[in-house]
Specification:
The protein contains twelve helices and 20 strands. The protein is of the alpha+beta class. The protein has two domains: 226 residues, FAD/NAD(P)-binding domain, CATH 3.50.50.60; 124 residues, D-Amino Acid Oxidase, Chain A, domain 2 (2-Layer Sandwich). Strands 6-5-14-15-16-13-17-20 form an eight-stranded mixed sheet, with helices on both faces. The radius of gyration is 21 Å and the shape is globular. Bound molecules: 8-demethyl-8-dimethylamino-flavin-adenine-dinucleotide (RFL) and P-hydroxybenzoic acid. 8-demethyl-8-dimethylamino-flavin-adenine-dinucleotide binds next to helix 1 and helix 9.
Length: 389
């Protein structure tokens, strides 16, 4: 079998890239090691930057997002038993859209199916080959048979544990990493959100986040030790802990109910450089991970897709390799700014086990400065709504 671009991974990066390419007449095949329902069962991101929304519009998958997504013009920071609103719209002229990653993925999968494009689910032992030549190919196994797809380019959209980054010789790649000494315990419940916008709370007991998926579905997180087990967190314990970490006015807005998803995620910053090795490009979580505090992971995946799509489009349309050659540099320039922002938000809002009293006062001063200085608020807002790409 032959195609122009083999895309490894059917998450939001792979699906969005595949759709943009197909809309421009560029053939592609997506391979994923799991099936559609498994991918749609993962609860992940919830906040889309305007640039991500525009890219989904360009891909032709924005109808439901515009109907059901919630426009948010601000967020609140909570500390010292008070809410402090950051007016994103007034400070930047932009807003964010609350629309779950699950829904984005669903829309992209539906569009791909309707366009008659090929996705091979349950593909085992996917392996990219010869990407340092002009004739790369990808092998995989399915239903006991071995297959090979020849192509011009391979896009590694296979997340942080995928095969693409692992296939690059170790001496060709440099990695940068920071682990944080805590995780996020997240729940989803069919209850109305505490507030109409997101609340990021810094509290002596630890960070908490009030988010949502719709006007009747809430997503909440609390910072927890890395070795906590889900079994130790009954719904009742979760709701109690969440309320204790919020200002009274926000806690009063919490409607409790049974959770239908509960999980603990570790927090990590990670970047691999470069993001391209000959004809293999890494995209999204395959190349970088950010802690979720800045809501940047999915949005960074979208900006990577944008740069790679432009490179591939110019290659096939104009015969120009300039965009492909620039991919890693263009993507990484934006990646590092989002890595910085996510690290900064994480540092400012969480309790670190080894923070001394000096560090504690610095954190308090930073939050106070942030909400009372228009310049500092504008900087947060500019990053939160997303730097241009
Ligand atoms: P994905 O979504 O991990 O998709 C990768 C796909 O590749 C497949 N795969 C393979 N296929 C073939 N062969 C192999 N060897 C393979 N190995 C893996 C996998 O099955 C999968 O289908 O990566 P992608 O597309 O780059 O998308 C990245 C986003 O998923 C991620 O950045 C965000 O979810 C991060 N994130 C958030 N991002 C935001 O922008 N805003 C948020 O509010 C936000 N909240 C979050 C988050 C991530 C979270 N978790 C659990 C990690 C909240 C949480 C809790
Ligand atoms: C979410 O709704 O899952 C969410 C929102 C904002 C974040 C992280 C996660 O910063």
């Amino acid at each position: 079998m032959r195609t122009q671009v083999v895309i490894i991974g059917s998450g939001p990066s792979g699906l969005l890239l595949g759709q943009l390419l197909a809309n421009n007449g560029i053939d592609n095949v997506i391979l994923d090691r799991v099936d559609r329902d498994y991918i749609l069962g993962r609860v992940r991101a919830g906040v889309l930057e305007q640039g991500t929304v525009e890219l989904l519009e360009e891909a032709g998958v924005s109808r439901r997002m515009h109907e059901e997504g919630l426009r948010h013009d601000g967020i609140s920071l909570a500390f010292d038993n008070r809410l402090h609103r950051i007016d994103l719209a007034a400070l930047t002229g932009k807003h964010v859209t609350v629309y779950g990653q699950t829904e984005v993925t669903h829309d992209l999968m539906d569009k791909r199916e309707a366009s008659g494009l090929s996705t091979i689910y349950d593909a085992a032992n996917v392996q990219p080959h010869e990407f340092d030549t002009d004739t790369p190919y990808v092998t995989y196994e399915k239903d006991g048979a071995s297959h090979r797809i020849d192509c011009d380019f391979i896009a590694g959209c296979d997340g942080s544990h995928g095969v693409s980054r692992r296939s690059v010789p170790q001496d060709a790649i440099r990695t940068f990493e920071r682990s944080y000494p805590f995780g996020w315990l997240g729940i989803m419940a069919e209850v109305p959100p505490a507030d109409h916008e997101l609340i990021y709370a810094n509290h002596p007991r630890g960070f908490a986040l009030c988010s949502m998926r719709s006007e009747h579905r809430s997503r909440y997180y609390v910072q927890c030790p890395l070795d906590d087990r889900i079994e130790d967190w009954s719904d009742e314990r979760f709701w109690d802990e969440l309320r204790r970490r919020l200002p009274e006015e926000a806690a009063a807005g919490i409607t409790t109910g049974p959770s239908f998803e509960k999980s603990i995620a570790p927090l990590r910053s990670f970047v691999a450089e470069p993001m391209q090795f000959g004809r293999l490009s890494l995209v999204g979580d395959a190349a970088h991970i950010v802690p979720p505090t800045g809501a940047k992971g999915l949005n960074l995946a979208a900006s990577d897709v944008h740069y790679l799509f432009e490179g591939l489009r110019d290659y096939y349309r104009d015969g120009s390799s300039a965009g492909m050659e620039a991919y890693s540099g263009r993507a990484l320039a934006r990646v590092w700014k989002a890595v910085r922002f996510s690290w900064w938000m994480t540092t400012m809002l969480h309790r670190f086990p080894d923070t001394d009293s000096f560090g504690q006062r610095i954190q308090e001063a930073e939050l106070d400065y942030l909400v009372h200085s228009q310049v500092a608020s504008a900087s947060l807002a500019e990053n939160y709504v997303g730097l241009p790409f």
